[in-house]
Amino acid sequence: MDINRPANVSFFDFVGGVQLLQGEETRTVMPVVLIGICVSGAVGNLLVLLILIRDFRNKRGSEVKVFLSSLASLDLAILLLCAPVRAITYYKQTWTLGSFVCSTTDWFQHSCVVAKTLLLAVTTRAKHTLVPSPNTGPPNIPTWIHGAVAFICVVSMMFPIPQMLFASLVPHARDTICVSRMPACAADFMSLFYKIYPTACYVVPVIFTIAYYTKALHTAVNHAPSPQHQSKVTLVLLCLSGALGLMLLPEWGTFTWIRLGYNKPPVGLIIFAQVMVYACSSFSPVILMTMYDDVRQGLIQIWFIASCRGSKQLPSIKCQKTEGNGAEVGAKSVENAIAQPAQEGEKTIPDVEHFWTGRRNTHVEVEQDPVPWEREEKML
Q1: Number of CB atoms found within 10 A of residue 326's CB
Q2: What is the DSSP letter of 210?
Q3: Which of 217-226, 233-242, 256-265, 277-286 has the least mean pLDDT?
Q4: Which InterPro entries match (predicted)?
């Protein structure tokens, strides 16, 4: 991947994935890894979105769930629109997707990453309780939430604009590569910008969010009157913030390293940082499905509904529609399935029932009693 940096630029970096790599192992392994992460993460985020949308339709929404659904949407966009570009780039080792994708791919990915970080910071002001809604119609979501989400989207698209301005196609031998080149005349201003950008969009929000939820979890466990539900939701948000901060650290580190004009980091570190960005988007739904009670119960309900639809040919098993707890629905169905064969087993065949009834109603005469000594002992 060695390529000479022009003399009139302050930094020179590949866009859309590392290009001009040597070796067939990287060309084969990296696309497979990225596609596997993309597929598994997309399925998980789609399930989380379906569960949260179903909760809002059933009037069980909350302010936190609005932000969690936005996070799942951003993760889905990163996995479906950004990861395939990197997979193709690693496979082709050159740029084949045109100038528009070259200019916008890093800008769009960083916009989504910045929006995720800021959204998690804003969840510190959201309520965990259910949003009151009228008897009919959609749930009543506070106006400030829509404004906050819109503001975060606009800000997150404005910060990475330099990555769109400096990206361009460069001919290399008979192929074309996509690189980011910053002119030397803008080096002073952009050096200051690339110190402010990671600090404002990553370091400060992550530290603030983790510190807030750590303190909130301590307060909920030790001082809240009913800490169970609140502490669980706080723990989920703390784990999401910690995972995001830890898994995005290599990406922000290599990004700042290159932009500030230091020696180019190792290629393995750059590839690892890019993989961790998509792994972070795939790991978020795992945290929600395993730790967040509402999402876990919704996943049980979806599985139960799917299994019921698949067992329509079995008339003995009836699937009941219930809007309550998914775990309770599953437990009741299992109890009904176990109790039904037991009740069928208790039924007595008519002939046998008639035989035993006749035996119970038969009066044994004294002279026909086969064991008269037992009757004599009882009389004594």
Answers
A1: 22
A2: H
A3: 217-226
A4: GPCR_Rhodpsn (IPR000276), GPCR_Rhodpsn_7TM (IPR017452)
> Cβ of 37: how many Cβ atoms within 10 Å?
22
What amino acid is encoded at 23 in this protein? Answer: G
β-strands 175-183, 9-14 pairing: antiparallel
Q: Phi first, then psi: give them for residue 2, nearest 5 degrees.
A: -70, 130
State the Cα–Cα distance between residues 180 and 134, nearest whole angstrom: 52
Long-range contacts of 236-241 (CB under 8 A, 24+ apart): 236/287, 236/288, 236/291, 236/292, 237/64, 237/120, 237/123, 237/209, 237/213, 238/210, 238/213, 238/214, 239/287, 239/291, 240/71, 240/120, 240/284, 240/287, 240/288, 241/120, 241/206, 241/209, 241/210, 241/213
Buried b (16+ CB within 10 A) or exposed e, 82-93: bbebbbbbbbeb
Q: Alpha-carbon distance 114 to 152, whole Å?
A: 9
Q: Does 201 or 126 have the greater pLDDT score? A: 201
Mean pLDDT (the chain) is 79
DSSP string of 88-130?
HHHHHSS--SHHHHHHHHHHHHHHHHHHHHHHHHHGGGS--SB
Radius of gyration of the CA atoms of the chain, in A: 32
- Show the tokens assigned to 58: 């059933």
Note whether 258 and 265 are within 8 A (CB): yes
Q: Which residue carries 């800021």 as its tokens?
A: 118
Angle at 279 between CA 35 and CA 26, to 5 degrees: 50
**How would residue 338 be classed by pLDDT, with cut points 50, 70 and 90?**
very low
